[in-house]
Amino acid sequence: MKKLCILLALLLLMGGALPSLTQEMMDYPSNLTECEVDLTGETLNIFHFGDLSGPYAFITQPIVSAMIDAISYWNSQGGVCGAELAQVYEDTGGNLEATQSVYDRFTSEFADELDLLMLYSSNDGELLREQLAADEIVSFISAGSIESLYGEDGQTPGWLYASNPLYINQFGFFCQFVAASPETFPDPVIGFVTWPGAFGLAGTEPAARDYCAGLGVDVLAEPQIFLPTDTDILTQVQNAIDGGANILYTNTLATGPALIAGALVDLGLEEEIKLAGVNWVMDTTVGLLGQRVLKPNGLPSVDGMFGSMPFLWWTELSSPAVQFVYQQFSLNERGPAEQNIAYLVTWGVVDSIIETYIRTVNRVGSLDAVTGADIRAIVESMDYAVLGGLYHFNFEGGMRDGVLNRIAVLKYANSTMSGPATGPADALLIDNPAGGKLFVPIVVPLTDFMEVPQLRGG
């Protein structure tokens, strides 16, 4: 199975296709609730907005592609309970003023139907937290901050629901992994090299340091900060190392992890200092951008980076969810840059929205009768395997974030597709459309899914 999984990843990145997954249409993998109300002739809009052109664009742009593909699939199947799916979205460029403006427009123009909204970032969630509650609009988000999900006190559940574990809990989970792996992490000391803001600084709280210290993992108190626009962070990386860090941890994405890894190569410390981060560091974009700088052994700078993986990945072919999304990805002729976390997870978000609306309409009797409060009641009563197992949806008991996670490592495939490459000589290299050759990134899970520690309460 391992060889087959790697083969699938290669075929995806090379634009190939597995005949068994593309010639015969697969059944939808979720066990959706049966419709009790006929919605034929109606339209169910999926509302979402966020940064599609700013710092997060590398990650977020495939959201729109996945939405288009999912909506096309459902409409070709006769819609959801007969209702046609559509999307209403806008790019905010990562600007909070634009976020507020779009929210104001959406809530004005679509006041009668905007009961459920998909957001992209923690900053947007924090900005809109109280407004969503006042307007009684439920929001699904991939990952939120403590403040956006639980308020300033960390104890007040709001109207946002995140599928991923909180970043502070992911960091605590990583400390568990480090403590259980002394052969890989002897005498561990972690230093944050990360972006500013709610996303970048998550996990730097005293509660996280105290938890990790209790496991025998020291964490430096002062994070080293750089901006998404920075191109030289040697000083920040060196400061963390001078402070005693032998593991660098980052809450960044796209260019961020690649920049840190490149700095380690420039300092000649790529073998001595380990690199790790939140789930976004495992994204395909990081595996591609990390090839701008190579290690002395000839492999990309991010080879060997650790990260969280709270959902199934493209290479886990035994999952019907992954098989189905891959088939749709291939049928819609999506490119390598779109084979990322956002495309995969967006299919899960659409599935969650559909299941939520089916249950809600079944309860209230019609689509017009649905309110945000009705949706919230359904969301907090659901125990649901998204897409049949891509990730788990359960927000009972006041939870607003996911609780399951695992650790993975980013590697590059060897030419026989039997495992990771040890260098350029045995690596699989494919043509880069921009010229030259590309290594093929693969993500290798190292642990099973387990519950994360709950650290938001201190």
What is the topology?
Layout: H1 2-13, H2 19-22, E1 43-50, H3 57-76, E2 84-91, H4 96-109, E3 116-119, H5 122-135, E4 138-141, H6 146-150, E5 160-162, H7 167-179, E6 189-194, H8 197-200, H9 206-214, E7 218-219, E8 224-225, H10 234-242, E9 247-250, H11 255-266, E10 274-277, H12 284-289, E11 306-308, H13 320-331, H14 341-364, H15 372-379, E12 383-386, E13 391-394, E14 404-405, E15 407-412, E16 429-431, E17 437-439, E18 441-445, E19 450-451
Parallel strand pairs: 1-2, 1-3, 3-4, 4-5, 6-7, 6-8, 6-9, 9-10, 10-11
Antiparallel strand pairs: 11-15, 12-13, 14-19, 15-18, 16-17
What descriptors fit this protein?
single chain; 458 residues; alpha/beta; eight-stranded mixed sheet; five-stranded parallel sheet
Describe this structure as you would to a colleague:
It contains 15 helices and 19 strands. It has helices at 2-13, 19-22, 57-76, 96-109, 122-135, 146-150, 167-179, 197-200, 206-214, 234-242, 255-266, 284-289, 320-331, 341-364, 372-379, and strands spanning 43-50, 84-91, 116-119, 138-141, 160-162, 189-194, 218-219, 224-225, 247-250, 274-277, 306-308, 383-386, 391-394, 404-405, 407-412, 429-431, 437-439, 441-445, 450-451. Strands 6, 7, 8, 9, 10, 11, 15 and 18 form an eight-stranded mixed beta sheet that branches. Helix content is 36%, strand content 17%. Helix 3 packs across helix 14 (341-364) and helix 4 (96-109) runs parallel beside helix 5 (122-135). It is of the alpha/beta class and 458 residues long.
